[in-house]
Design a protein that fits this description.
ten-stranded mixed β-sheet; alpha/beta; 2 domains; DNA polymerase, domain 1; TIM Barrel; 10 helices; two-stranded parallel ribbon
Length: 370
């Protein structure tokens, strides 16, 4: 079985080249090409002669994700990719370009998926509705970044600068692959760990373990409620790891890595948008010296919930006084690429066959006006 090329460093590729009777520097050429956004297949590595490409192609797999469809939003600054994996399953990845401004440098962020579906089952998120199909390999996670980089390149945009593990799935439930992919992005892809964020619903033992890995990535806890009774409803994982233990783990992680903890709060109208919830969140954030990231809920087909009225949002934010808080800019809603909208196997668009593969595309259902 061929080895995914993206999990191999330069030394390993030189060894592969030497074993095939090629000069080792051919491995260096290949390593450089792997991370160029304009190269999407082994045939595109023109520095290598055809015979060398054939020999290497028999041993190595250039990518583990095959982009089947792309859609755009925000005037082309947000791109959602639907990519096929082995076994006929799919994941969605989002690339977001943010132009430079007088106050901030240009950035391009890729939101990667770590699992096909999700087992956590948060009721405000579309991903978990079909449950968990399987976890992604480290190569599949890394190759999503490469595919997104190529999509940005085709649109004349610059390189990827940031990565967030906030797509489909719970990254810390796929711990080994997540950590391996973090190391690859930080070394081979050249993305500083300080520009990578890992979001978790609250897998407390894995948070403690991640703190020992020597990876100074930002940890974002998907909190969404400030008391256990409400969080049990919104994030079922809370029943195993309640808020006190979760916040203790997050605080310990921040102290061990020197990275400020982030608390994610999906603001749901009439559910967790009260001033009382905001006051409790303020106390938690203050104790942990955490940053609060408020995300008004995006529309999800079939959900009775949605974002709060603007006045309720303003009252909630005002009640967070004294805490560093931001409201996340909603990106990609027009193409269902915003937070909470990524789906598992796209069963509303393609039928899932008994063998786990996807059938032919079906016409998209007309969405009701909201």
């Amino acid at each position: 079985m061929s080895v995914p090329i993206s999990i191999l460093d330069e030394a390993s590729l030189r060894d592969v080249a030497a074993r095939l009777g090629l000069p080792p520097w051919r491995g260096t050429q290949l390593h450089e090409a792997v991370w160029r956004p304009g190269v999407t297949a082994l045939d595109g590595v023109r520095q290598l002669p055809p015979a060398a490409r054939d020999a290497l192609g028999a041993e190595l797999r250039f990518t583990t994700v095959e982009v089947a469809a792309e859609s755009e939003a925000d005037g082309g600054a947000t791109v959602k990719l639907l990519s096929g994996l082995d076994g006929g399953l799919t994941v969605e990845t989002v690339a977001m370009e943010t132009r430079a401004s007088p106050r901030r440098a240009r950035r391009a962020t890729v939101c990667v998926s770590t699992q096909v579906g999700c087992a956590v089952g948060c009721p405000f998120c579309a991903t978990g509705r079909a449950g968990l199909r399987r976890s992604c390999t480290a190569a599949e996670i890394v190759d999503q970044v490469r595919a997104a980089s190529a999509a940005l390149h085709r649109r004349g945009l610059g390189p990827v600068t940031h990565a967030v593990y906030m797509g489909m799935g719970e990254p810390l439930a796929n711990y080994e692959a997540t950590v391996e992919s973090l190391r690859i992005l930080g070394s081979e892809a050249g993305i500083s760990p300080r520009r990578i964020t890992v979001s978790t619903s609250g897998v407390v033992p894995a948070i403690h373990r991640l703190a020992t890995e020597g990876l100074p990535v930002t940890l974002a806890i998907s909190l969404h409620a400030a008391d256990d009774e409400l969080r049990d409803r919104l994030v079922p994982l809370n029943r195993a790891h309640p808020i006190d233990s979760l916040m203790a783990a997050g605080t310990a992680y921040a102290e061990a890595t020197g990275r400020r903890l982030s608390l994610e709060w999906c603001l749901i109208g009439g559910v967790n948008d009260s001033e009382e919830q905001a006051a409790a969140l303020r106390r938690l954030a203050h104790a942990a010296r955490a940053h609060v990231n408020v995300i008004p809920m995006n529309v999800i087909d079939g959900s009775p919930w949605g974002p709060p009225p603007a006045a309720a949002t303003r009252r909630f934010l005002a009640a967070l006084r004294g805490v560093r808080a931001t409201v996340r800019d909603t990106r990609g809603a027009a193409t269902e690429a915003a937070c909470g909208q990524l789906r598992a196997t796209l069963e509303t668009r393609r039928a899932l066959l008994p063998d786990g593969s996807l059938g032919p595309p079906r016409p998209a259902a007309t969405r009701s006006a909201r």
